[in-house]
Design brief:
It is a single chain. By secondary structure, the protein is mainly alpha-helical. The chain has helices at 5-12, 19-31, 42-54, 57-68, 80-93, 97-109, 118-124, and strands spanning 2-3, 36-39, 73-76, 113-114, 130-131. It has a single domain (2-131), classed as 5'-nuclease (Rossmann fold). Helix content is 60%, strand content 11%. A 3-stranded parallel beta sheet has the order 1-4-5. A two-stranded parallel sheet has the order 2-3. Helix 1 (5-12) packs across helix 2 and helix 1 (5-12) runs parallel beside helix 3. The longest helix has 14 residues, at 80-93.
Length: 133
């Protein structure tokens, strides 16, 4: 499964509305040794969001470093062709640029995207499977 940044952010922030559900879902995936995927830039997204919300750059670093070493998470780098595909999807589906990267990765790997984002869920459902934790 492709895991959107919003799942990791919710897991990291106890005040997030989806914290408990995100933590529980990720813990279940880890316990079941389910292989999870995310684009490499998820580290920057999560680090920035956590640091902004908490006001702590060290907390942002702590969270992205934990993701880097998570055994069930495979971080996927991309080439120019992949980003061109994501750009086309952004235009076609009217998605934010970062969201289009997750959708493109899900389509390329033939895996469902797990997200809390309702807009992404609605717009991408025609081309990929979209799940919520």
């Amino acid at each position: 499964m492709i895991v959107d940044a919003n799942i990791w952010i919710a897991r990291a922030l106890s005040a997030d509305a989806h914290h408990v559900a995100s933590r529980r879902w990720i813990d279940q995936q880890v316990a079941g040794s389910v292989q999870l995927f995310a684009p490499l830039f998820v580290l920057a997204e999560v680090a920035g969001a956590v640091a902004r919300i908490t006001g702590s750059s060290s907390e942002g670093r702590r969270v992205y470093r934990a993701l880097e070493v998570m055994p069930v998470l495979r971080l996927v780098s991309a080439d120019d062709a992949f980003f061109m595909e994501a750009a086309a999807l952004a235009a076609e589906l009217r998605l934010r640029g970062s969201d289009s990267v997750y959708v493109a990765l899900a389509r390329r790997l033939g895996l469902p995207l797990v997200t809390w984002d309702q807009e992404v869920s609605q717009r991408a459902a025609a081309i990929i499977a979209v799940l919520h934790p």
